[in-house]
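TA notes, week 10

Several of you asked for a full example with nothing omitted. So below is the full record: structure tokens for the whole chain, then the designed sequence directly under it. When grading your own attempts, check the secondary structure regions first.
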């Protein structure tokens, strides 16, 4: 399920970049900002059309993840430990990718200055698509962790966290 979520959200992210953002590369900053809101609504309601408005429950978890584990005297559900561990591994992997790889160095260069990065031989379009793909993959991981932790999802599940992230980014 995790691999399917990562693959599908990566494909959606790359398609959104190609269809919605690439034509707006030279546009003023406000235009892509408005486009991101529109794409958010489009994706949410496309999912509504595909799977419906009803809540969908995540399947029962294995017995080990349902039990409470004692850590330093605190009783914590196994699923919460699993989600925290997976999130930490994902963040460490992302950090290593961005800070230790050649592609990560290119991503950082493009984020600083696209024109200068292009003059240095970096394929700016490829780096931007890669950034969208990595973001989509991380969104797939986050979606599965959310579903495992809260056990119910519907087409607007990510709306509130998305608004919070959008506000933080702006």
């Amino acid at each position: 399920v995790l691999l399917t979520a990562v693959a599908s959200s990566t494909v959606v992210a790359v398609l959104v970049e190609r269809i919605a953002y690439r034509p707006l590369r030279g546009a003023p900053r406000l235009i892509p900002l408005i486009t991101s809101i529109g794409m958010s609504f489009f994706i949410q309601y496309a999912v509504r059309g595909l799977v419906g408005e009803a809540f969908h429950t995540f399947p029962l978890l294995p017995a080990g993840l349902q039990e409470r584990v004692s850590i330093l005297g605190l009783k914590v559900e196994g699923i919460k430990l699993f989600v925290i561990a997976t999130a930490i591994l994902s963040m460490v992997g992302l950090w290593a990718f961005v800070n230790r790889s050649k592609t990560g160095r290119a991503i950082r260069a493009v984020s600083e200055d696209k024109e200068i990065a292009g003059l240095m031989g970096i394929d700016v379009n490829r780096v931007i698509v890669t950034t969208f793909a990595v973001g989509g993959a991380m969104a797939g991981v986050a979606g599965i962790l959310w579903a495992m932790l809260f056990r119910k999802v519907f087409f607007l599940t990510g709306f509130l966290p998305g608004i919070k992230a959008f506000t933080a980014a702006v």
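The chain has a mean pLDDT of 90. Use that as a sanity check on your answer.
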